Amino acid sequence: MRMSINGKLGRSVIIIIIAIIVICNSVKIIPAGHTGVVLRLGAVNKRVMQEGLSVKIPFIEGVVKIDNRVKKEEVSATSASKDLQTVSSTIAVNYRVMKQQSSKLYQNVGNNFTEVVIAPTIQECVKAVTAGFTAEQLITDRQSVSRLIKDNLEAKLSPYGIAVEGLNITNFDFSTEFNKAIEAKQTAQQQALKAEQDLARIKVEAEQKITEARAEAEAFRLKQQSLTKDMIALEAIKKWDGKLPEYYGGNGGMLFNIPVQD
Question: What is the tens place of the pLDDT at every residue in 230-246?
């Protein structure tokens, strides 16, 4: 009897253990920002588990977690510009795996899609775009270059189920010779601008002096016109000391010469 009870107890424990194992293998918790790619006997199933608690067939279905959060990939690329200058650049790309495409990406590429797809595609797009710009244009029109690289990258990665959230060119570097040439050109432009500004200043100052001279000449002319005969006479009266001019005649007589008004 005691052996029978012990046997039943042992079987019950075994059943409970098996039940726990089956239950544990029947559920899968997917963390926030992830999806679960379901593998049925090793084959990728179209069903994708969303974050939270999901049920699966125990021992038959497995689950591979895919991170769908925004990630950053930074790649260094060397390319040639339109004028055959060597361009060394660093590109930072923000991307994410689209949830509905998780199973497709895993089936076609695997979990190492960053090394297999993203990094090589960034290099390819950088080389294709920089070849269409001169080295100087890459510097002055950096925003257009960045936008074109992003557009090309989106077109190549979207079929894999990867969305490009943002792209930044964190560095553009050129050869030492080109950098010296750019520096010399900027110096020459600054000197030419300074000479132009100096010439404009001298021209303005000369025009100001001419205007001042013309104003003084005009003032003098008007002053001369205002000196009429009456004003000359008035000035003479102002300067008269009150003595009449004396004239002596031939016989020793004194004559007075009194001016007569017209």
Answer: 566 666 666 666 665 55
**DSSP helix/strand/coil, 234:** helix
Greater confidence, 98 or 205? 98
Euclidean distance between CA atoms 133 and 143, whole angstroms: 12
* Residues of each domain in the chain carrying CATH 3.30.479.30: 71-174
- Which is it for strands 86-97 and 71-80: parallel, antiparallel or unpaired? antiparallel
* CATH 3.30.479.30 for domain 71-174: yes
pLDDT at site 245: 58
**CB distance 44 to 79 below 8 Å:** no
- Using DSSP's 3-state secondary structure scheme, residue 121 falls into helix
Nearest-angstrom CA–CA distance, 91 and 172? 9
- On whether the CB atoms of residues 143 and 129 are closer than 8 A, the answer is no
User: Which tens digit of pLDDT belongs to each residue from 138-155?
Assistant: 888 989 999 999 999 999
